Amino acid sequence: MKAYLLQTLKEIALLGGIKNKVELSSHELGKQLNTSQQTASRYLLELDKKKLISREHGIKKQLILITKEGKNLLQSEYTDFQRIFDLSDKIFFKGKVTSGLGEGRYYTEQKGYTKQFQEKLGFKPYPGTLNAEIEYVEKNKLRLLNDHRAIVIDGFKTKNRSFGNVRCFKAEINKKKGAIVLPMRSHYSHILEFIAPIYLRGKLNLKDGDNVNIIINFKE
Amino acid sequence: MKAYLLQTLKEIALLGGIKNKVELSSHELGKQLNTSQQTASRYLLELDKKKLISREHGIKKQLILITKEGKNLLQSEYTDFQRIFDLSDKIFFKGKVTSGLGEGRYYTEQKGYTKQFQEKLGFKPYPGTLNAEIEYVEKNKLRLLNDHRAIVIDGFKTKNRSFGNVRCFKAEINKKKGAIVLPMRSHYSHILEFIAPIYLRGKLNLKDGDNVNIIINFKE
DNA sequence: ATTACTAGTAAGCGAGTAT
DNA sequence: TATACTCGCTTACTAGTAA
Fold it and tell me: Which tens digit of pLDDT belongs to each residue from A167-210?
């Protein structure tokens, strides 16, 4: 969507164009947008063509109403701003299911971990992790995790080797509850490891390459 | 503000750029915005020049942080969307103080009205109305009043003449509480009449032509 | 890898104006 | 009064490429 069309649509919405027909000449709209009558007229034509507004031409001016699609577009823009300012107790990721090295299973079956998962997260993880590769740019969002208190799973030692501390954040993957697991000290990876009480690949019918939505939730 | 710069700024904010430095190449940004690396680079230059972001150039990529001004810009955009969707129990107007015909005083001193103002609005209006001329386009917002229940002041008759019903909405003018008064059946005018328990022109130091902010509040 | 310059092309703009 | 077309001008875009 062209940025200036969105801006125009927002301006109409501010005048009440979602609920009511707005009486607005192209000249007036131009004034609101700091542009000319001709440009405003063109914007209206474009919005109309894209079915984001509907118009009735009165004798003078025109009656403009924002369509369902137009409203949806504004709503999704609004959601973006909510994510920026209000929903900072949540972080959203898009990812693609990927197969790890199969190590997840080994770790999640260690009693030293599972006991703590049960205590601190409230569920016994299904063996193995579901790995999701997030887009490279979205790695930036991981830095936001530093502002929030993680659920810390303590490391432990067995006869053979030692296991390090692990940080968890409660999260959802395609609406199914679970948690993100991150090694304690290490740089952020572009692979997120997800644990859950259920077999996610089965329940969500996922295979490698499928898109998933992950929401990390700090409030719960 | 150019619409595409705002869009770019929002994208950076979604990656956490308000709180953290975001590691973002112009190529990646271009991908996010569905445009080329060159255009994204230019956007970043423009945002930098306008001091909406600050940048550090690493060896690769760059670290981008949204400045205070950048955040303010996004915040005011967010406010617009809140007004569209969430604060639909409020309507905002900009207006200019104007002198009416002096009739306001005559009406507000009628006992048939004042008694009801006291009962239904909770205050005895200072004699006279403060009139504000709203911009022509903002008249559209008045149509939103139809969706809300007005406080109705009943008309009455005296020996000499009869007075019609009046609709009121609780409102604020430059943060001072009062109410907007509208004749019951008539087309919307571009003049809003405001009553309050205090002498507004005095208390707010207003004279003709001064800008005022009026907020009609349906919830209170 | 990057960023960002140059230059040629495409899109956007608004004065003038027809309707 | 309106809307919206044409057309010359400006801004914005991206391929190529230097650093």
Answer: 999 999 999 999 999 987 667 788 899 999 999 999 999 999 99
Q: May I ask the CATH architecture of the domain A89-217?
A: Beta Barrel (2.40)
What integer pLDDT is reported at residue B189 of this predicted model?
Answer: 83
Can you tell me which residue has its alpha carbon closest to the C1' of nucleotide D4? A41
Nearest chain B residue to A32 by CA distance is: B137
Rounded mean pLDDT, A36-41:
92
- Closest nucleotide (C1' vs CA) to A37 is C14
SS3 sequence, A107-139?
Answer: HHCCHHHHHHHHHHHCCCCCCCCEEEEECHHHH
Interface check for B144 against chain A (CB to CB < 8 A): the answer is yes
For chain B, domain boundaries: 3-76, 89-217
Asked whether the domain spanning A89-217 has the same topology as the one spanning A3-76, the reply is no
Residue type, B180: I
Torsion of CA B34, B40, B43, B44, to 10 degrees: 130
What is this structure's pTM?
0.86
Task: Identify the CATH number of the domain defined by range B3-76.
Answer: 1.10.10.10
Q: Is B80 on the interface with A (CB under 8 A)?
A: yes
From the CA of B184, how many Å to the C1' of D8? 53
Chain A positions touching B9 (Cβ under 8 A) are none
pLDDT tens figures, B117-129: 999 999 999 988 9
Buried b (16+ CB within 10 A) or exposed e, A73-95: bbeebbebbbbbbeebebbebeb
Q: Which tokens hold the place of B207?
A: 């004279």
Please give the Cα distance from B218 to A160 (Å, whole number): 69
Most confident of A99-108, B94-103, B152-161: B152-161
The nt closest to B33 (CA vs C1′) is: D13
Q: Report pLDDT for A128.
A: 87
Cβ-defined contact of B84 to A13 (cutoff 8 Å): yes
Q: Is the pLDDT of residue A111 over 90?
A: no
Residue A187's identity, in one-letter code, is: H
pLDDT class for B106, splitting at 50, 70, 90? confident
Please state, in angstroms and rounded to a whole number, the distance separating the CA atoms of residues A38 and A27.
8
pLDDT at A78: 97
Query: Does B152 touch chain A if contact means CB atoms closer than 8 Å?
Result: no
Query: Does the structure show a pLDDT above 70 at A101?
Result: no
Residue A140 is nearest to which of B23, B75, B139, comparing CB atoms?
B23
The set of residues with CB closer than 7 Å to nucleic strand D is A 24-27, 37-38, 41, 44-45, 57, 60-62; B 2, 4, 35-36, 38-39, 42-43
Closest nt by CA–C1' to A42: D4
